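Example for tutorial group B:
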């Protein structure tokens, strides 16, 4: 079994989409006339983070899991990866695939980007799902751990560093799928252009850059889209009170906490997450 076995019964396309001056890697599935759902991964992540979610969602929705700007196999411009640039790239992708409006599902950095997009472009965001979202606080210890673990994984040849980086995301390591995801990430991290661009991908882990990109309560108060916050009670990058503060800041937001779960609730607890997400999307589509 591999992570791609999850897609065995799905008619999907592994695509490269021209989004302005950037070529964007995407996994697309589901009815072409369905409502668009876009899945956005975390810092130095890639679209495989949602491999366990596409089949269930593609039964009804037009799904897009993308490698965000500078990540995975998407183009890597030599400029700092800050939130407005990620949002611009996301909007260019929506334009390229003809999505005037989309439901956004963002994990970690992806939630930060999705929230910012919803605050800037309310007419284009049908709903928000924020999975262990980052970007609301400056925590030097967490930022330094992320920088160090990612640099080791990308710049050292020993694959154990990549495995260690991935294990940070899980409360309980899945040996089989975890090992395959480790190899996928190792191959991405050891592309020369990824290594050359690493400082740009880690820009938001520097205090000054993070400060000017923080997702503050006043911006979150602008969000009009129905919002679901999903959190793992063993999330190593942010405890439950952070999730509660996010939920309180976004009008009408709802919080769901998964027990024995780390930073990837959509992957680690897919059996809980998928029906929760689908029910939320159905309710959001009806409004």
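The residue assignment follows.
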């Amino acid at each position: 079994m591999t992570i791609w076995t999850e897609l065995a019964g799905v008619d999907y396309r592994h695509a490269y989409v021209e989004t302005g001056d950037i070529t964007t890697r995407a996994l697309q599935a589901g009815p072409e006339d369905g409502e668009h759902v876009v899945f956005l991964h975390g810092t130095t992540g890639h679209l495989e983070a949602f491999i366990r979610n596409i089949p269930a969602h593609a039964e009804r929705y037009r799904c897009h899991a993308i490698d965000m700007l500078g990540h995975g196999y998407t183009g890597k411009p030599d400029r700092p990866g800050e939130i407005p640039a990620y949002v611009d790239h996301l909007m260019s992708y929506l334009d390229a695939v003809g999505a005037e409006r989309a439901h956004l599902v963002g994990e970690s950095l992806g939630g930060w980007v999705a929230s910012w997009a919803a605050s800037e472009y309310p007419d284009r965001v049908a709903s928000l799902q924020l999975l262990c979202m980052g970007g609301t606080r400056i925590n030097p210890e967490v930022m330094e751990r992320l920088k160090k673990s990612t640099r080791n994984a990308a710049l050292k040849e020993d694959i154990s560093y990549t495995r260690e980086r991935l294990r940070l995301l899980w409360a309980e390591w899945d040996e089989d799928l975890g090992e395959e995801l480790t190899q996928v990430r190792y191959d991405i991290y050891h592309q020369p252009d990824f290594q050359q661009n690493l400082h740009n991908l880690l820009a938001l882990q520097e205090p000054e850059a993070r400060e000017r990109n923080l997702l503050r309560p006043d911006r979150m108060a602008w969000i009009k889209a129905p919002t679901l916050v999903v959190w793992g009670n063993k999330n190593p990058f942010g405890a439950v009170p952070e999730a509660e503060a996010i939920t309180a800041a976004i009008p009408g937001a709802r919080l769901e906490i998964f027990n024995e779960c780390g930073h990837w609730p959509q992957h680690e607890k897919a059996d809980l997450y998928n029906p929760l997400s689908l029910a939320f999307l159905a309710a959001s589509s009806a409004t």
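The chain has one domain: 11-140+214-286. Compare this with the pattern of hydrophobic and polar residues in the output above.
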